[in-house]
Design brief:
245 residues, 5-stranded antiparallel beta sheet, 2 helices, alpha+beta, 8 strands
Length: 245
């Protein structure tokens, strides 16, 4: 066959037609892609499960730590409550101890005063012998204007014999601008005027006065008179309500 000068020449190769081979190649390619996909899926799944397991373990550990911290907080709260209760009990006990000590000190002071009084009566260390108006005391008025009073008479002698006589008690004060004087029996209906006494060492004359409305007591005047051949008259005044004059 004649060739044309100047034209490009191509070589042709004859390939046999094999359709089965192409189908197998395509099938193998598809299987390879599927296997790669399955491998990738399971690999990712295993890694995901591993990560999930680690997260669950971490969550469990955190929950355990949180639970332990909660228990610790409860224990600390109980300890604080116990300490507060203990502190309150200690304060109450200390207050009770202080009150007891104060009461004991007051009792001791009262006992010392009583001992001093009895010593003065039984073994007087004074040159003033005979009857004595030792004390006059009144309480604070109540809502009905009532006051309790106590008059203490003693005698200072070496040989204690019975002494007897009468004592007059009067209360002076003001009603407005007017001075008034009330005898004891006018304020205490249970008492006579004057009041009789008889004792060897001492005698308390006590009772209850009703202060008239508008009356402001200022002074208590006491006049005691013994009976017998060697009678003795004694006067003493007290500023209302406690101070002796």
């Amino acid at each position: 066959m004649a060739s044309v000068k100047g034209s490009k020449r191509y070589e042709m190769v004859v390939v046999p037609n094999r359709p089965i081979f192409r189908v197998m190649a395509m099938t193998l390619s598809i299987c390879g892609v599927c296997l790669f996909g399955m491998f990738t899926y399971y690999e990712g799944k295993e890694r995901g499960m591993a990560i999930s397991d680690e997260w669950l373990v971490e969550q469990y550990q955190l929950q355990e730590e949180l639970r332990a911290a909660g228990e610790q907080i409860k224990l600390m709260q109980k300890e604080v409550a116990t300490l507060r209760v203990g502190s309150a009990i200690d304060e109450k006990a200390n207050a009770e101890i202080r009150d007891t000590v104060e009461l004991q000190q007051e009792s001791i002071a009262e006992l010392k005063e009583e001992i001093s009084f009895y010593k003065g009566v039984m073994a007087p260390n004074t040159d003033k012998k005979g009857l004595r108006v030792e004390n006059f005391d009144v309480s604070i008025p109540d809502s009905n204007n009532k006051v309790e009073y106590s008059l203490l008479l003693t005698q200072v002698v070496e040989n204690h014999k019975f002494v007897q006589g009468r004592v007059e008690v009067s209360v002076s004060g003001m009603i407005g601008r007017t001075e008034e004087i009330f005898a004891l029996n006018e304020l205490d209906g249970d008492k006579a005027h004057p009041v009789s006494f008889r004792f060897r060492y001492f005698q308390n004359i006590n009772g209850e006065m009703v202060i008239p409305k508008g009356f402001e007591p200022q002074k208590v005047q006491i006049v005691a008179q013994t009976s017998g051949r060697k009678s003795q008259r004694l006067e003493r005044s007290f500023t209302w309500p406690l101070n002796g004059g």
